[in-house]
Design goal:
Number of domains: 2
Radius of gyration: 26 Å
Strand content: 25-35%
Helix content: 25-40%
Number of helices: 15
Length: 644
């Protein structure tokens, strides 16, 4: 059993539909997204929270002790199960250990079925010599996972119960909730009011919620383990104890086969339709095109999961429209959003690396390459939002006022924080790599584009690359902000656009101005627009998102670039691994347990911020770990390979 980590550190257990259970080590919910049963109605989107948490009390020798912790407004913590909490481990699944005044110990476990999202909650008494009882009250909402619930007359407390099992349907049109137990159910409707979510308040958002409890489950904890299974659906003719044993046995066997970091990687793999996709991050993202194709290089390809990679790429291949892939499928079925200049190019890179590494069957290969050709045709001819190849230099121009197209995509109201209209540096690196990777009819466009890149992007005064040229579509206007996007001209992609002294200068500039133990800053500290802390209300946070905030996912391309200019030797691999990856590995035990956060403050101590479980952050850490193995690893060569 691990020692007790930070009580506000977060744990996550996900399923293949895109639902999840999550919370804090201390047991108190600090976000609206913390839930025990959260299920997608159109996997992986349209998620609803069915069960938010529970109240749990154990009674021994006439005294009651809480095993749960709640935080109420304005700042009241009651009950205080945390006072009895002595240990927590998230391996192989979340497990809490409580020590009671009489010397008894209660162990609580939470296990999620990765197939259907059913949640097993179990409590076991150790060291007790007499009678002991346990009472557990589920706390329900039945709301969109981005929303909050308040007491209302529409909530239905009606229950259908049989022995220790019960089912409820809080609102018509939402899934029913089944509670299956080896105890007994007592129907006793009650509202619990004014839960306070501290992280929501810190983000400048509404933070107060009411939850409903239709009744409670009661167990004889002195004679056997208490089991409560929560699942979406109305079937209650189930033996909860037998179901719990089967789920834990299957899940234990699955997890024994996978190291911890691989289990974390698998959390992001979900179903979409008949195929697969990757969740961009938990708890509030679904699947995004850009994030999927960046993250899959580490989460899927670097781990040799080639069949899975094929299904993901195949599922997205059919979504090309006007030469673009959608960047996001909205939660509620609206038209997909195509507002990304880079998502489609990242898809081309992922297809290239997949084909180079996996040599898939001919039919899939041709389908993927048709999608690639459709994307490149669209960019050559011109497509949405001013995206298209400039025939004068072979580079990609993009952007219209009011739309954020690159990965630096923060927008608050109508204000785009970093519009980067014109010819952004990493878009050219992606474009030229996409052209070279095809080995087909577009490959001839790569050399003239690269010559233009070398001529137009070099900032001789700063000894690095401009972030954007022809800014705002004005020929010759440049944005000289020192940002991490230039690193992709040297590392992070199959083909480098720079070598020699210029490549070394770019790496040196990024290392000196942007490198932190948590990744790369999004803007140099010397820039007047730099903001070193990501905090406050939505406007304040969005303003800092790409103006100094650190992004862990960028450590992957930096490691690639550093090795390219310093020399790809065993000694250098070891050195950069210890320098740049050790802190991120340790971070996996500090915020989102087992995972890597989305962002961190630009200023020391680089406090983790944003989404605590981020796919591309973990993916690029995995890819960088594979890249820095001291012995050569199987897979595509660092320099890439054109279309066979």
């Amino acid at each position: 059993m691990n020692t007790l980590p930070d009580l506000d550190a977060e744990w996550l257990e996900s399923d293949r539909l895109g639902g999840f259970a999550s919370g804090t080590v201390g047991g108190h919910r600090t976000r609206r997204y913390h839930a025990l049963l959260l299920t997608p109605q159109r996997p992986p989107a349209d998620r609803v929270v069915l069960v938010n948490g529970f109240e749990a009390w154990v009674e021994i020798a006439g005294s009651s002790f809480p095993l749960s912790t709640q935080h109420y407004a304005p700042d009241v913590t009651y009950p205080r199960g945390i006072d009895h909490l002595v240990a927590f481990s998230h391996e192989p699944w979340p497990r809490w250990r409580f020590h009671l005044p009489g010397g008894e110990t209660v162990t609580h476990e939470c296990v999620v079925d990765p197939v259907d999202g059913s949640v097993v909650l179990a409590w076991r008494l150790e060291g007790g010599a007499g009678a002991a009882s346990l009472s557990v009250r589920p706390l329900l909402s039945g709301r969109d996972y981005h929303a909050l619930m308040h007491e209302n007359a529409s909530f239905s407390f009606d229950a259908r119960a049989s022995a220790g099992n019960a089912t409820w349907r809080p609102y018509a049109g939402l899934p029913a909730v089944a509670g299956l137990s080896n105890g007994r159910y007592v129907h006793e409707p009650q509202w619990f009011r004014n839960f306070f979510y501290a992280e929501e308040a810190a983000r400048g958002l509404d933070a107060i919620e009411d939850l409903a409890s239709p009744g409670g489950f009661h167990f004889d904890l002195g004679t056997s383990e208490a089991v409560l299974v929560l699942r979406a659906g109305d079937g209650i003719a189930v033996d909860a104890a037998a179901l719990s044993q089967r789920m834990r046995r299957i899940e234990a066997a699955r997890r024994r086969r996978l190291p911890s970091i691989d289990r974390a990687a698998e959390a992001y793999v979900v179903r979409r339709g008949q195929g697969h996709t990757l969740i961009a991050g938990f708890p509030w993202f679904t699947d995004w095109g850009r994030d999927t194709f960046i993250a899959m290089r580490g989460l899927v390809l670097a781990r040799g999961r080639f069949e899975l990679a094929g299904t993901i790429l195949d599922a997205w291949a059919g979504t090309v429209a006007e030469g673009m892939l959608p960047n996001r499928f909205p939660d509620h079925g609206e038209t997909p959003e195509f507002n990304a200049v880079d998502a489609s190019l990242w898809y081309v890179i992922a297809v290239h690396e997949f084909i180079a590494a996996a040599a898939p069957r001919h039919a899939l290969r041709e389908r993927l390459l048709r999608a690639v050709d459709a994307i490149l045709d669209g960019y050559v001819a011109g497509t949405r939002f001013g995206i298209g190849m400039d025939s004068s230099d072979g580079l990609i121009a993009c952007g219209v006022p009011g739309v954020q197209l690159t990965w630096m995509d923060a927008k608050t109201g109508d204000h785009v924080v970093t519009p980067r209209i014109g010819k952004p540096v990493e878009i050219q690196a992606l474009w030229i790599n996409a052209l070279r990777s095809t080995g087909g009819r577009h490959a001839a466009l790569a050399d003239p584009a690269q010559r233009s890149f070398a001529e137009l992007f070099w900032n001789a005064d700063a000894q690095c690359l401009y972030d954007v040229i022809d800014a705002d579509h004005v020929p010759g206007r440049v944005d000289a902000s020192v940002r991490p996007n230039q690193i992709f001209a040297v590392g992070g992609l199959p083909f480098a656009l720079l070598d020699g002294e210029r490549a070394a200068a770019v790496v040196a500039k990024v290392e000196a101005e942007l490198l932190t133990p948590m990744g790369l800053r999004s803007l140099a500290r010397s820039d007047p627009a730099y903001l070193g802390t990501y905090a406050g209300n939505p406007f304040e946070r969005d303003s800092a998102y790409h103006q100094g905030t650190v992004w862990p996912w960028l450590i992957g391309p930096f490691v690639d670039a550093w090795l390219r200019v310093k020399g790809d030797t065993a000694a250098n691999r070891k050195a950069i691994r210890e320098r740049c990856l050790a802190t991120l590995l340790a971070h996996r035990e500090a915020a989102g347990l087992g995972h890597v956060s989305e962002i961190a403050d630009g200023d020391a101590p680089h406090t983790p911020r944003g989404c605590p479980f981020q796919a591309w952050s973990l993916g690029e850490l995995i890819r960088a770990l594979a890249r820095t193995e001291t012995e050569p690893q199987p897979g595509p060569p660092a320099s890439g390979k054109a279309r066979p």
